[in-house]
Structure formats: structure tokens, C-alpha cells
Amino acid sequence: VCVTTQTWSPIGTCWCVPTYANGGTSDIMTNITLGTLNNSTTGNVSPYYNDYTSLQQGSSATLSIPNLFGGLTSNLVITYGIDPNQYGVVWIDFNHNGAFDASEYFSHNSNAGASGIATISILTPGTAVGGITRMRIRGGDDVQMTDLQACGATNSTWGETEDYLVNIIPPVPKDPAITGLEGQSGNKITTKEKVK
Question: Which of 11, 44, 50, 158 is most deeply packed, by most CB within 10 A?
Fold first, then answer.
């Protein structure tokens, strides 16, 4: 039972629960890669939801926490199981509100197919709250999911959900006092010049 006045935490127990009726060995994600995070799995047992955040914490962590930089795009690569229908999506709690909002949703928008590999481009907003936050990946689904299906059931009874931690690095604010950069041998770039 979650209390709404609980302090926000990416590793807390009050995150919504995704559900599937079926999973198995073919409607799965077999590898997740995002920056320094690389996790390979071989099975998908009931309840078809795996929270890997505990494996990313402490001195005995076996999975790294990747950095995502505000204002920049990072690529999440998902490898799927052998079912011919493989769709996947991801949400990242950029605003630390303890929910996966529709604006925090990304998808590869196509069927990756049996043993397919798909890339989801994630643009981290420049306004994202810095620090550790939660990422939810749903995949192995037989049909495309919507931006409102981070919790509960999806459009498919088949699939898998995996949760991870990511670290948001906010963009460095521009210093208005800096109007140019000068390097060795007089190379200089000012705000009036374009860099080629």
C-alpha cells in the first residue's frame, strides 16, 4: 500500500505495477543496452515484471546506472525473443513525480520481428530534474503500446516489463560573460562566427 505523502524515490515501492497474462520464452526482451547499461536475460516468468534497480545499487552492484544528458539524445537498444511480433516502449520519470507521464514515453514504432533488434531514441529534456530516476521498458508485446500504458495491462496479453535506474545530468547553464573561446596559435571562435 502506497501513501501519497511518501517522499519521492526512484527505488521506492510505490511505483505502479505493469501486468501481463502471458510471457514465456519468446515474448521477451533478451538484451537491453543504454550507454553503460547492458543486461542480457534468458527467461520471462510470471508475473512478467522484473525490477532490476536493486542490481544497480551499492558496492555489489552488477549493473551500471547509465548517464543521460539534458538536451541530448541517447539510444536504447532492445533485442527481442523469437516471437514474430515484438514491439517495445520506454518511459523515464524525468520530472521526479513518481509516475510515467505520456510526455516521458518513447517508442521504436514498428515490429522488430523474431529475434529483432530495435533502437529507441530518447531525447532527455533540458528541463529534466537531475539525479537518479526510474526508467520502465515494456517489450515483447504483440502490438504497439500507447503512451498511457506504463502501468497495468497493455494492448497485448503477451510481453515483459523491466525497470532500471538512470542518472540525469542537467545541461550546464550558459555563462553570458563568455563571448568567445581562444585556443593555441590564436585560433578563436566568437559568438558571431559559425563553427564548421
Answer: 44
